[in-house]
Design brief:
The protein is of the alpha+beta class. The protein has 3 domains: about 1-60, no CATH class; about 65-155 and about 180-235, Nucleotidyltransferase, domain 5 (2-Layer Sandwich); about 245-250 and about 255-325, no CATH class. About 30% of the residues lie in helices and about 30% in strands. It has 8 helices and 12 strands. The protein has helices spanning about 5, 15-30, 40-45, 50-60, 65-75, 145-160, 185-200, 220-225; strands at about 85-95, 105, 110-125, 130-140, 210, 230-235, 245, 260-265, 275-280, 285-295, 300-310, 315-325. Strands 1, 2, 3, 4, 5, 6, 7, 8, 9, 10, 11 and 12 form a 12-stranded mixed β-sheet that branches.
């Protein structure tokens, strides 16, 4: 396909020279192997894509958010499709000391923090095509407040694991704090700014209802971040999350009504909550859906538990997903 023809829809946002340079760089990115560098791109562009040309292209301040949106609206958007808004962070390892935004970020592939660069991306997920399309990408540059909050959280976790277990019951002098009024962490405040700007850009064209995030955002603070934007959250909880059935017992006659009932046992979920059972080979998959409570969340959660059983060895595993509506 003629890449330059596909990029003509962007002529209102960038000069034609930039579009021509972009078409050569895109063609190189599609065929090159190994780590992507400006020198590597120049070796795969052929005529019209010298090293200096590639440097000039990346030295420009381009309106990437506008380019992503215009390209999606022109070539990808389908009015009859249903879209979800997803978000995730990607980490690329990088050596050196002078690269902008260079820091230590947790990389799931390595299972530990590594020096490199991080980028947070929002993307639209087509439920019919089962594909995702990046719509806004920004480099993660952590502020001093965000670094301090991360360090304080790590120190508190380390201290809690090293100290002796406290006495049961409520600590003396503690006060109630409304969960719904919780303040956003510096990390979530940064992501909220991206989310609000994106919603303002696509308002009126795509009726979004859900934001899909990974297990890092399976918390009350993340839920409040999404609800402040009038959206609902789909995310993942820990496999050992403390979930409770709503209390259905009689009123004791004094004090507040009991809110939490029996704790959920993932190995003994009531049969009436089983929605579907499938078997592929020797793997049996069961889907449960039920409204449950979590003491860290101010509202009930629509929970889906996906339990898999190896029929040969009887080994079991499960994941816990939830939705806020």
């Amino acid at each position: 396909m003629d890449i330059l023809a596909l990029l003509q829809c962007l002529h209102s946002a960038v000069p034609r020279t930039t579009l021509r340079q972009c078409s050569r760089i895109v063609a190189a990115l599609l065929v090159m192997t190994g780590r992507v560098t400006m020198l590597g791109i120049s070796r795969w562009t052929g005529s019209g894509g010298s090293y200096r040309t590639v440097q000039r292209f990346f030295s420009q301040a381009l309106p990437w958010a506008t380019l992503f949106w215009v390209f999606f609206r022109q070539h990808i958007y389908r009015a009859e499709d249903v879209y979800l808004l997803g978000g995730d962070e990607v980490v690329a390892t990088k050596a050196g000391k002078h690269t902008h935004g260079l820091d230590r970020f947790f990389a799931s592939l390595y299972g530990k923090p590594v020096p490199g660069l991080a980028f947070f991306a929002f993307f639209l997920v087509s439920t019919q095509q089962r594909r995702s399309f990046p719509i806004r990408v920004e480099q993660v540059v952590r502020s001093d407040a965000e670094k301090a909050a991360s360090k304080a959280k790590a120190d508190a976790k380390k201290q809690a694991s090293s100290t002796a277990k406290r006495r049961p019951g409520r600590p003396k002098g503690s006060k109630n704090t409304p969960k719904a009024d919780g303040t956003l962490t510096p990390e979530f405040a940064r992501i909220t700014g991206m989310l609000v700007a994106l919603l303002q850009r696509i308002a009126g064209l795509i009726p979004l209802r859900y934001v899909v995030l990974d297990g890092h955002f399976g918390s009350h603070n993340a839920l409040q971040m999404v609800r402040q934007c009038a959206l609902h959250l789909i995310a993942k909880l820990r496999y050992d999350a403390a979930l409770y059935f709503p209390s259905t017992g009689p009123y004791a006659g004094r004090g507040p009504r009991r809110k939490y009932g029996r704790k959920v046992d993932d190995d003994n979920i009531p049969v009436q909550d089983l929605k579907e059972t499938t078997v592929e080979g020797h793997i049996q998959t069961r889907l449960y859906q039920v409204q449950l409570l979590h003491k860290e969340f101010a509202q009930p959660l629509n929970v889906v538990i996906i339990a898999k059983t190896n029929l040969r060895t009887q080994a079991r595993a499960h994941v816990v997903l939830f939705r806020s509506d």
